Inverse folding.
């Protein structure tokens, strides 16, 4: 049994989501290899080789992989798949974009967003916004799966010394081209890796008001999250959305401010260790899952909380 | 160009799913069902492309039970031109859905297929990408802007780090994200008109596609419930609890 993990990276840095995927892959019970497909990504391969428990790193370094276009990377993975029993990617937008393409080309079902590995062919995954957990057994000989970061502890980033093998690029179908990106730049921790998250909802009322959330987050060394309503209203950019159709987070502390607690939002944060809700409506559903609820006007409570820390 | 829009009938997004006592699945008896919200966005986008003179015909297709006709009628009432139901009461996994859709694409030859990024029941987020792979077409997933540019399209995608734009040749696959558009409500006259629009009912066998599942669902359970919390009266009390009881700050 050997599993191939698709590394999450931006050509310069290996992203932490890779470490959780390595843990999931090692629970399948065999060797773990990591594929780094990128452009000028030697440093990423070096970092992947240091992950504890990884025995081989495959480095496909080619301009066509620079922006991780699914059309280009899927055929590469398919060409390697013969040597592997399982192909694993983190449930990131990149993993979600690429892996089903691989599964379809291999004619196997993909198991999405695995939270738990029961055995080499049996997995637990959330359905219906996490209101139900399905235990599914794959009858395909090869397993293709994305894994939820919050379900698996990160493998140690150092301590390993895997062999790095350089491999050739696969044929590029030439039907897609990267045009550009507008990536959020922030000194705050990444949402999915943060220990503390402060999230704002529609109750914030405006993008200007979001500064009190940001200020509280900075005091706590926290990441900033948001509900869909806050993103739709333009208070903050889409990469902050927490929920069924945004990011799934499970920090030590999640502070929900001016968020009502819709099923879709809860799906993204209800596995947090401690949940605090600040809402002026004492009937808001968020209070049903909050460990500590404060019924208050957020415009008073949030600055006060920041001061009290 | 012709646009194909696959639409799925799912539990309404306002309904909280309940697991069956025998753990075989989710109880859908007497539960309100609706079109998957991402598919409403897909239908809306197709209609806007038609209104802009960039598309001539919109075909909605659904795979599911007889009641999925209602979902298709909703798409027709919004503005789709005709519909196809591939009727089945079986569980159809994304790979099988993608194979059936490929057969429909082969027959109808659309230039663009717009799907939802995920169905809110099974949350797989696979079908569009699988269809793209089976057809060998490019894909613009999690789209928040879709522009026809020359003889291709440019798709702005919602990615973990922000937004990213890709240029694709046609034919292509698009999957919708929440902020692509705000779907319209069907007007009463359009709901009436939709009843007369063409809706063909087919079976998987008509397309010669094997839809047998690859995954066995062993059980479906409710997740562990969170123990109820408390209300605090003041900020001081909150800070004290976080420091001394929970130990998280
Ligand atoms: C297909 C689909 C996918 C979705 N995916 C997601 C998702 O991934 N993530 C997500 O979050 N949502 C998602 N949603 C949307 C979800 O259903 C809710 O609409 C959304 O979460 C509501 O956001 P909110 O709580 O900020 O707004 P509201 O529900 O409007 O709540 C605002 C809250 O702020 C409180 N408030 C207002 N003013 C103040 C004040 N001054 N002080 C204190 N409290 C105040 C109010 O009491 C209220 O409880 C999705 C919906 C659909 C249909
Ligand atoms: C525990 C469990 C129980 C299940 N029970 C049932 C059941 O009782 N009945 C049943 O029918 N299925 C059942 N299924 C199958 C499941 O609900 C989905 O139909 C299937 O797995 C497709 O996944 P998805 O909809 O999440 O795909 P996604 O890849 O998330 O869907 C993305 C998009 O693909 C398109 N699409 C997907 N499916 C269809 C479709 N059928 N028709 C048209 N367009 C589509 C839509 O545009 C959609 O937005 C069950 C699955 C599990 C795990």
């Amino acid at each position: 049994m050997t599993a191939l993990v698709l590394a999450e990276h931006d050509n310069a840095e290996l992203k932490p989501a890779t470490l959780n995927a390595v843990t999931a892959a090692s629970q399948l019970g065999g060797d773990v290899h990591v594929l780094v497909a990128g452009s000028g990504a030697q440093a990423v391969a070096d970092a992947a080789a240091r992950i504890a428990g990884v025995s081989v790193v495959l480095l496909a370094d080619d301009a066509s992989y620079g922006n991780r276009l699914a059309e280009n990377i899927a055929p590469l993975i398919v060409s390697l798949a013969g040597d592997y029993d399982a192909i694993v990617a983190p449930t990131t937008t990149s993993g979600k974009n690429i892996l089903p393409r691989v599964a379809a080309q291999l004619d196997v079902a993909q198991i999405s967003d695995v939270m738990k590995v029961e055995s080499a062919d049996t997995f637990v995954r959330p359905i219906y916004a996490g209101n139900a957990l399905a235990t599914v057994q794959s009858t395909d000989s090869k397993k293709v799966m994305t894994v939820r970061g919050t379900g698996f502890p990160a493998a140690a980033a150092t301590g390993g010394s895997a062999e790095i093998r350089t491999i050739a690029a696969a044929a590029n179908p030439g039907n897609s081209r990267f045009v550009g990106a507008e990536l959020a730049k922030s000194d705050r921790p990444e949402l999915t890796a943060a220990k503390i998250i402060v999230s704002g909802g529609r109750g914030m009322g405006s993008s200007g008001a979001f500064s009190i959330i940001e200020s509280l987050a900075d005091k706590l060394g926290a990441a900033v999250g948001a509900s869909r309503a806050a993103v739709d209203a333009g208070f903050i950019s889409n990469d902050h959305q927490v929920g069924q159709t945004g990011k799934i987070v499970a920090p030590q502390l999640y502070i929900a401010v001016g968020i009502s607690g819709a099923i879709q939002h809860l799906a993204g944060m209800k596995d947090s260790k401690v949940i605090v809700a600040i809402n002026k409506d004492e009937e808001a559903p968020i209070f049903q899952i909050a460990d500590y609820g404060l019924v208050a006007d957020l415009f008073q409570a949030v600055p006060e909380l920041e001061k009290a820390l | 160009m012709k646009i194909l829009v696959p639409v799925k009938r799912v539990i309404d997004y306002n309904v909280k799913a309940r697991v069956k006592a025998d753990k075989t699945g989710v109880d859908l008896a007497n539960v309100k069902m609706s079109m998957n919200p991402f598919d409403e966005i897909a239908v809306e986008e197709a209609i806007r492309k038609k209104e802009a003179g960039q598309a001539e015909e919109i075909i909605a297709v659904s795979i599911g039970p007889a009641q999925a006709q209602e979902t298709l009628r909703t798409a027709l009432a919004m503005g789709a031109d005709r519909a196809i139901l591939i009727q089945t009461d079986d569980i159809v996994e994304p790979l099988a859905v993608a194979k059936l859709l490929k057969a429909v694409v082969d027959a109808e030859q659309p230039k663009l297929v717009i799907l939802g990024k995920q169905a809110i029941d099974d949350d797989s987020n696979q079908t569009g990408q699988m269809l793209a792979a089976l057809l060998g077409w490019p894909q613009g997933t999690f789209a928040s802007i879709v522009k026809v540019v020359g003889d291709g399209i440019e798709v702005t995608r919602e990615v973990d780090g922000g937004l990213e734009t890709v240029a694709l040749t046609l034919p292509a696959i698009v999957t919708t994200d929440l902020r692509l558009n705000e779907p319209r409500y069907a007007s009463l006259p359009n709901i009436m008109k939709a009843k007369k629009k063409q809706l063909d009912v087919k079976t998987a066998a008509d397309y010669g596609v094997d839809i047998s599942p690859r995954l066995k669902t062993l059980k479906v359970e409710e997740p562990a419930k969170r123990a109820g919390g408390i209300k605090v009266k003041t900020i001081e009390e909150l800070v004290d609890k976080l420091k001394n009881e929970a130990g998280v700050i």
